[in-house]
Amino acid sequence: MTVPEHVAIIMDGNGRWAKQRGLPRTMGHRKGVEAVRETVRAAGAAGIKYLTLFAFSSENWRRPEAEVSDLLGLLKAFIRRDLAELHRQNVRIKVIGDRHSLRSDILGLLLEAEETTKDNTSLTLVIAFNYGSRDEIARAVVSLARDVEAGRLRAQDITPALINARLDTAGIPDPDLIIRTSGEERLSNFLLWQAAYSEFIFLPEYWPDFSSEIFRSALETFASRDRRFGGLSSQAAAVGT
Questions:
Q1: SS3 113
Q2: Where is Mg(2+) bound in this sequence (predicted)?
Q3: What is the C-alpha separation between 207 and 66, in angstroms, rounded?
Q4: Where are the beta strands (DSSP E) in the chain?
């Protein structure tokens, strides 16, 4: 089976999972953390090299203050509880998103996770936190514009590769597969540039119900697809020859 090098997941549906069961939204988020742990283990076992999880978007700050506080608390608890285990499993943690406005306690934990695991060589777990793709692209463009103003770069020399190198994901391959749970079928400002040739799988299950079995089924669906990247399919190319 062809295994994707990079899988990105929009973990959606925690609140609706809880509402369906008459529980507070916070319980959905807590159950979602358990799904994160299982997914990280499953990704490593499958031989995936990069797993990106959309943990907290730049738009999530608009949610009720109590819910935001709970989400931040869960992130802190996850890193404090799971960092040592991830490190033992040779997992490298990379955080993408705008860091400038983050609280010092949150930023400190994220930096600690990156620093502790920076030399690990197994799965790279990319955590998209305070992340919005349009913001990411805008920050990359501003960086290039400053170089043009300073005379370090000519505007006509800007290429997609140069833009790519200024994104938060510089050095990380584009996702081969993007999965979204909860039945929603949109990207929601997630990896817009990087998703140019990604395969998409939209699942009806809410994120807390996401399991290694569901993950494996999604990987099997990916393996059955014929990725053409704008060219001919492998079957058509064979007929042409």
A1: helix
A2: 12, 199
A3: 21
A4: 6-10, 50-57, 92-96, 124-131, 177-180, 199-202
- How far apart are the C-alpha atoms of 222 and 176, rounded to whole Å? 9
188 is in an annotated binding site: yes
User: CB neighbours (10 Å) of residue 197?
Assistant: 12
Provide the residue type at 45 as one letter.
A
User: Which tens digit of pLDDT belongs to each residue from 41-88?
Assistant: 999 999 999 999 998 888 888 888 888 888 888 888 888 889 999 999
186 labelled as ligand-binding?
yes
The reported pLDDT for the residue numbered 103 is 83
Give me 34's structure tokens. Answer: 């358990």
| Residue 61 is assigned to a ligand binding site | yes
- DSSP code at position 63: S
Whether pTM > 0.90 for this model: the answer is: yes
Flag residues of the chain having pLDDT under 50.
241
Residue type, 103: R
> What is the spatial distance between Cα 93 and Cα 160, in angstroms, rounded to a whole number?
26
- DSSP for 159-210? -HHHHHHHSTTTTSPPPSEEEE-TT--S-SSSSTTTTTT-EEEE-SS-GGG-
**Complete edge-to-edge strand list for the sheet that includes strand 92-96:** 92-96, 124-131, 50-57, 6-10, 177-180, 199-202
Residue 20 has a pLDDT of 96
Which 3 state secondary structure label does DSSP give 225?
coil
Bridge partners (DSSP) of residue 92 are 124
Confidence at residue 241, expressed as pLDDT on a 0 to 100 scale: 46
Q: Report how far residue 166's alpha carbon sits from residue 159's, in angstroms, rounded to the nearest whole number.
A: 11
Residue type, 196: A
